[in-house]
Write a structure and sequence with these properties.
The chain has 524 residues and is an alpha/beta fold. 48% of the residues lie in helices and 9% in strands. It contains 24 helices and twelve strands. The strands form three sheets. The chain has a six-stranded parallel β-sheet, with helices on both faces. It has a four-stranded parallel β-sheet with strand order 3-2-1-4. A two-stranded antiparallel ribbon has the order 5-6. The longest helix is centred in the C-terminal third of the chain and has 24 residues. The termini are far apart. This is Glycosyltransferase family protein. InterPro entries: Glyco_trans_9 (IPR002201), LPS_LOS_Heptosyltrfase (IPR051199), TPR-like_helical_dom_sf (IPR011990), TPR_rpt (IPR019734). It comes from Tsuneonella flava. Keywords: Glycosyltransferase, TPR repeat, Transferase.
Length: 524
């Protein structure tokens, strides 16, 4: 086809050919020329959208909308708009567009490929599997029919089907990182540790939507051999770092010196808990300059010869069930203990109820909302219950409830109504060291899956962890009652996703029984 010249009007076929040849710039030029003559050309709007790079979000939005407005019966227009919404983390909007595309053409390959992804991300797993099966029938070489089926089957706990589907999917993709990351979760739940942890190492790959980013330390990674001085840095949430810190003692046995680089909220706790380890603070958004500063401070006396992300300790030291000790390894500092000793109001508040010693119960009902990340915020919503649900545990005679949260009770819906019934120490929970000093004064912590659950378990404090139906795989398969991470933990699971009421009913019954047992013990 001749190059469009000054006397030849470019066509959408020209722009599409340029796009298929990988020349997005030329595709964009031709699409702009077409739209200058025909502003309502839906296909040209589609091609202009396809030519734009990610930084042109506003312009892409306009062209996506125009393509669907001017070509409403073209399924590809709705597919493109779904893909755009995926890029900007509007997965609910992406799902709506996929539904429109599939309604127009149920056998449209791109609509099926994008649709099975949209349905799976929005946790409509059965529909995602059905679309993936249809896609495999008409396009057996398309990887989306395998990747999304594997992940959806795993979430439905159909592991015997999911595992072979993962194997097929990994043969069809160039970058297996995202699949390894997804497969890791069910392997961990099933305690296939030797298979799970190597897949966990993909979490830093740019293609993997894990929500964590590695830090740019200019230093070799620890190989697993002996080391004069290894620096271990925290690279995930506080609960993750607490959980993975269970292997610090194992690392110390292999290295002459160990330094921990963690957020300042963890520093005091880790200094008290690991007296043979140096602890330095590190900002969560550390770049090259900050990482160089951390290395300089850590190596002031002995040069750091290797570094390791704290989660990577697992692939070195936790590859069998029998190497999870489950015993306590964290404790608060004396300074944190002294802080609460100097608070007579706190001591008096937890001491007596109606002349008898009360059961001092910490409660936590909400976790970090993970704002800005769709997958993280969805998990947070699943893990968080309404304060009203947890409050059904505070009116039990013989229980003194303490809110274990650094957010004021009044900031939660219904919080003002229970002021005075629940001890609120949020203003003083400025570090996990102080939180630990509170936890060791409690008889029990009842909490959703969040950082304080790990803190209590790592201290050996009795903790009842309330899990949603699709609870984090680190706690094992649905229905597990104990944790291989923490001997002091008891697990409670929802029977149905979102049903906290039935779960809290069971917890309340057990809590009433525990109070009665304590009273019997006091009278004996």
């Amino acid at each position: 086809m001749a190059e469009p010249g000054i006397h030849q009007m470019p066509t959408c076929e020209d722009a599409l050919a340029a796009l298929n040849n990988g020349d997005r710039a030329r595709c964009g030029e031709l699409a702009v020329a077409i739209l200058a003559q025909d502003p309502d050309n839906g296909l040209a709007h589609m091609l202009r959208d396809a030519s734009l790079t990610d930084e042109w979000v506003a312009l892409a939005t306009a062209h996506c909308a125009a393509a669907c407005r001017n070509s409403p019966l073209n399924p590809q227009a709705w597919v493109n708009r779904a893909m755009f919404y995926e890029r900007v983390d509007r997965h609910d909007k992406a799902l709506d567009c996929s539904r429109r595309a599939l309604a127009l053409d149920p056998l449209h390959i791109d609509a099926l490929a994008v649709g099975t992804q949209n349905f799976r991300v929005n946790e409509l797993f059965d529909e995602a599997i059905a679309l993936a099966e249809r896609l495999r029938q008409i396009a057996p070489d398309h990887p989306s029919g395998y990747t999304n089926a594997a992940i959806a089957l795993q979430y439905l706990e159909r592991y015997e089907e999911a595992d072979p589907m993962f194997a097929l999917a990994t043969e069809m993709v160039e970058d297996r990182g995202p699949l390894d990351w997804e497969h890791f979760h069910s392997l961990l739940a099933r305690q296939h540790f030797a298979e799970a942890w190597p897949k966990y190492e993909t979490r830093f790959k740019p293609s993997v939507n894990s929500g964590v980013t590695d830090f740019p330390f200019d230093c070799p990674r620890w190989s697993g051999a002996g080391s004069d001085h290894v620096l271990v840095y925290g690279e995930q949430g506080l609960g993750d770092q607490i959980m993975f810190a269970s292997a610090i003692a194992d690392l110390q046995a292999n290295c002459a010196q160990v330094t921990l680089a963690v957020h300042e909220i963890l520093a005091g706790l880790f200094r008290a808990s690991f007296p043979g380890v140096s602890v330095v603070t590190m900002p969560v958004d550390s770049g090259v300059r900050e990482c160089a500063d951390v290395l300089a401070r850590a190596g002031a006396v002995r040069k750091v010869d290797s570094v390791l992300a704290i989660g990577s300790l697992m692939s070195r030291f936790r590859n069998r069930r029998d190497v999870f000790p489950g015993t306590p390894y964290l404790r608060p500092s004396e300074a944190a203990r002294d802080f609460w000793r100097r608070r007579p109001d706190w001591a008096e508040g937890i001491r007596q109820v109606r002349g008898q010693r009360a059961l001092r119960v910490g409660i936590c009902w909400a976790c970090n909302p993970s704002m800005g990340r769709f997958a993280g915020s969805m998990r947070a919503r699943h893990k968080t219950m309404a304060l009203a649900e947890m409050l059904r545990l505070v009116d039990i005679d013989g229980v003194v409830p303490v809110a274990i949260t650094n957010v004021p009770l009044t900031a939660f819906e219904g919080g003002e109504a229970v002021a005075g019934r629940v001890i609120d120490i949020s203003a003083d929970l400025l570090s996990l060291d102080r939180t630990a000093a509170v936890l060791e004064q409690l008889d029990l912590l009842v909490t959703v899956d969040t950082g304080v659950a790990h803190l209590a378990g790592a201290m050996g404090v009795p903790v009842w962890i309330l899990l949603n139906r699709r609870g984090d795989y680190r706690w094992g398969e649905w229905g597990a009652q104990s944790s291989y991470w923490y001997d002091s933990a008891r697990l409670y699971w929802q029977d149905t996703l979102g049903d906290w009421t039935g779960l809290v009913d069971r917890v309340r019954q057990d809590l009433v029984r525990t109070v009665e047992q304590q009273r019997v013990g006091e009278c004996a």
